[in-house]
Amino acid sequence: MNGPEIHISFAPALGLFVPAPRRGGRTALVTDGVSTLGHVVESLGVPLTEVGALLVDGAPVPAAHVPAAGEEVEVRGVSRPQEVPGAPLRFLLDVHLGTLARRLRLLGVDAAYESEDVGDAALAAQSARERRVMLSRDRGLLRRRELWAGAYVYSHRPEEQLRDVLERFAPPLAPWTRCTACNGVLTDADKDEVRERLEHGTRRTYDVFARCTACDRVYWRGAHHARLDDIVRTALREFGGAPA
């Protein structure tokens, strides 16, 4: 590029995305004179989903701002908790985040999930159509313009991923109210209604059941309940709410 030179700095939280020489503070950058600041930031590796504010000479500007020579640009990270206005807070997760999707559903958070790789274009279109926050570790997906909203998932570990999403968006928690398989809403089920679908040991041992109103899956507090209950209680202790 051979255009105006600006000086740009990134919040420490964005250091993951930018080249190492730009992680230490203010650095010079020659722009092409026509690209928007949003395009410039993304060209340096930072998805705009992770940008909380863009400041030029100390004043906020939109991503559509075209940088001029000599400007001092500061790229800040998103504030936490992050507000997502315009629709009820709900999420869409890509094929690589199945465990996170099930844990969000366990906590009663609306989390759609694609178990097959349907492609970035289809995911972005679904995000826009259903007004869901796209959660992904794919930076290319998060740069798609048709996304309604998005967020980068920073960790590979499901427990850290869950903590990150809960801290960033502070969704209302309602444990044990969603189907972990399909995201449908659970309702109480009478034992006699589901008796024929239970194995003999389950019929003999358990009396409290729930049923998914979408896929008709039946739930009870079985062998894995203690592990799931630990996930629920940890989330409630750290992020509020009351056990169901």
What does this entry show, briefly?
This protein is an alpha/beta fold.
List the helices and strands and how they pair.
Elements (H helix, E strand, L loop, with lengths): L4 E6 L16 E4 L6 H7 L7 E6 L2 E2 L11 E6 L13 E3 L4 H9 L4 E3 L6 H11 L2 E4 L2 H4 L6 E4 L5 H12 L16 E4 L1 H4 L5 H6 L3 E4 L5 E2 L5 H15 L5
Parallel strand pairs: 1-5, 6-7, 6-8, 8-9
Antiparallel strand pairs: 1-2, 3-4, 3-5, 10-11, 11-12
Description of the molecule:
By secondary structure, the protein is an alpha/beta fold. The protein folds into 2 domains: 5-77, Beta-grasp domain (Ubiquitin-like (UB roll), Roll); 91-240, no CATH class. It has helices spanning 37-43, 98-106, 120-130, 139-142, 158-169, 191-194, 200-205, 225-239; strands spanning 5-10, 27-30, 51-56, 59-60, 72-77, 91-93, 111-113, 133-136, 149-152, 186-189, 209-212, 218-219. A 5-stranded mixed beta sheet has the order 2-1-5-3-4, with no helix packed on it. Helix 2 crosses helix 5. The chain is elongated and about 75 Å long. The protein starts with a strand and ends in a 5-residue tail after the last helix. The mean pLDDT is 91.
